[in-house]
Amino acid sequence: MKKYWSVAKCSLQVTLTYPMTTIIHILISLISFVLMLNLWNSIFHGRSTIAGYQWNEMLAYLLIVFIINTDVNSEYRCAKKIINGSIAMTLVKPISHSKYTLAEIGSSIVFTSTFNLMIGLLVSIFMNVYITSNIIVIIFFIVSFINALLIKYLIVYSSSLLSFWTHNVQGVMWTRVAVVSFFSGALIPLDFLPTWLKELCELLPFQTIINTPIKIYLAKINYTEMLILTIIQFLWILVFYIIVKIVFRYGLKKVNINGG
Question: What are phi and psi of 73, to 5 degrees?
């Protein structure tokens, strides 16, 4: 286990040594948050509630999206190793590639989410953000938040593994960002969508990243439903884990090792 902690530490050191890329993505996400804040402020002007959301709840919604959804192009590092063949350096070591990547990509996701959380707490001090005091809700939210980050990691890892076949990560990455952002509820709450589209989104795994933690935090559902949604998150984690294993196994047959 210590070797994976070392990988995570090295990944964080790289991020802190060359922080410009991470800072740019956080700034882009922050600008997006400010724009969405102003947009929804205009929409709520003169209204107390829209689609079951009060203004302070919408503020909490936007902050949670900001904390979870900041994208740092984490899959680029993994995909680059696949494309140039340097993945071989990992394969010859007595370590699991999936755990190695979890330590590498996961540390970036946790770092940006933690940094965004601090910004979110600062914003909540100066704005009338909905803050729950229900201990049970907080526990469910923390579990769903961690699950959301794990599912996000597995989706990012899955998209990076497609580089075995595409040999180009940019198109896959931006497609992944667009699909996840829309179907997760990051762009607009799923409750604002037409019924048929909302039901479709709820069948897909992406809504477990944004919609599920927010529903739990805002207590839009009862405790039983919170438990069910949390279990669904665990099931999607298992499904994506199996998918990753299968894709990686078949992808290795396509890997191109330069000079060998």
Answer: 55, 40
The C-alpha angle with vertex 50 and arms to 64 and 194, in degrees rounded to 5, equals 85
Let me know: does 198 contact 123? Beta carbons within 8 Å.
no
55, 126 Cβ separation under 8 angstroms: no
Q: Would you call 49 helix, strand, or coil by DSSP?
A: strand
Looking at residue 115, the DSSP 8-state letter turns out to be H
What spatial distance separates the first Cα and last Cα of the chain, rounded to whole Å? 31
Q: How far is CA 37 from the centre of its chain?
A: 20
CA angle 25–26–29, rounded 5-degree value: 85
What stretches of 51-177 adopt beta strand conformation (E)?
A: 53-54
Helices (H), 204-255: 211-217, 223-251
Q: What is the pLDDT of residues 104-145, one digit of tens each?
A: 777 777 777 777 788 878 878 778 788 888 999 999 999 999
Q: What is the residue type of 54?
A: Q
Per domain, the residue ranges of the chain are: 2-251
Three-class SS of residue 50? strand
Closest CA to 39 of 188, 184, 178: 188
Q: Tell me the CA distances in angstroms from 131 to 127, 138, 140, 181, 214, one per residue in order.
A: 11, 10, 15, 24, 12
Report the predicted TM-score, pTM, of the whole model to 2 decimal places.
0.84
Reading the block at residue 62, the tokens are 């936007």
The candidate with the shortest Cα–Cα distance to 232, out of 200, 203, 194, is: 203
- Residues 6+ positions from 243 with CB-CB distance below 8 Å: 154, 158
